[in-house]
Amino acid sequence: MKIQKGFYCLLISLFLLLFFANNPVFSADKLVSIDADQAEIVSVLKSIAQQAGSNIVVSNSVTGTVTLTLNNVPLNDALKAVLKSNNYFYEQSGDIINVFSYDELQQEERFAKTTTRVYTLKHASVSDLWRPLLSVKSPRGRVEINEKTNQVIVTDTLEKIAEIEIAVQRLDQEVVLKKYRLLFATASDIKTKLEQIIPAAKGEIFTDDRTNSVVIKATPVILQNIDELITGWDVPGKQVLIEAKILQVTLDNNVKTGIDWEYLKGKFDLKGSFAQNITTGGIFQVGTLSRSNYQTVLEMLSSTSDTDVLSAPRVVVMNGKEASILVGSSEPYLVQTKDTDTGLITTETKFMDVGIKLIVTPTIAENGYVVMSVHPEVSSARRVAEVENALAVDTTQADTTLMVKDGDVVILGGLIKDSNKTTVNKVPILGSIPLVGLFFRNDVKEKVKQELVVFITPHLMEANTENEVMNAEARRIEELTKRSMRLQQNINETTFKDSGSKRQQSVDDSGVAGDSVEQE
Q: Closest by alpha carbon to 295, among 406, 404, 457?
């Protein structure tokens, strides 16, 4: 019994071997080689099928010749190389390869059975998917949408239905709405950067300037790296504290040409050029000074000449941004505008800033250095009587860029101007009485030269030192307020004593007493 069963199994195995040996099985990976020169396409296709051991059926509409050389090429690639160049197609149905023309393909699709499928979208909007699906359907197919139920109705052949179904699955992705509240960066700047990463076709970006927020509407795949990017962008910007001091030095007969910075350069280790020509007005001098010698230079100027501190502003500015300091006034001037249609003339009052203007743009470099772009400008206003008392502005300005270390001082000098100085010598109390006081005082007018000297000190600020700087500034203002109150108290006490005194005051022949007031 066992021998009979073994015999039957052997017969079945032999039968299967003979069946598959005589019935080739289609395999797209089989390699073929062929060399043809103006050969009939049908003959070339038969040769390829024989080498691959495949069954092939060629339509009567397939005609023409082909020239090609193929060595060890996969069956699929060989068929495409022969048919595509002649606008023919093939399809594999079971173990048979069918070859036909493009017209026959259209004819087959025309009479192919169609079916209808309804797809309900979960995430995407049907109105957004309608156009992409139209490009997938066949000429016979139809794509309709129902926006109320967010459904797509597709009618097409089974092959096209399968393609459309894959397209719907890939396009119907979840869309996430995510909001980012920014602490340091501005929403408009972040939006500009995000638009370079998220195209309009893949997501939408909105900004709310009131809350400084950015809202992104996109798929999770798009948003997966956005968190890290915004965290890296939304960081405190580097800041620079600009500490300036503007001095006005009255030049005496010994230094009428200006302060001798070359002498100070050798004595106090000043660096840089101190004879740089500028395009507008005179000689502009610039240099740098170490922090240790800064106070020494200030004391030297105060002790050797009449020096006034016009202003000592301090301003914090972002890295690469412009800081503007103005010590002066706004002069009014009239602007007339004529309407060309009605001929009506309107007059508008505008204002122009004059005085000492300082524009500084710091850029933080490596190793604690700051690149300073400095624009000093000194202007004065005058009225031109010949032109209906119009406003004329005389300006001296310059531009320079230099690199200094954090805490070092930039010196700007050479801005010399002529001023009228009036010295008033008067008898106390009597010299201040209207009309009568003219007989008890003496006015001396003279022309003097004055040089403006600007000291600029940049300080790099870290995020954790900003509060310390603000506290230090508050303490400085508080100390100045206390000094002002003490000075006012002393003045009040002195006035009270003078008004209560009954002693006789003596006046010399020139009518000059102890008080001296200077006016410019």
A: 457
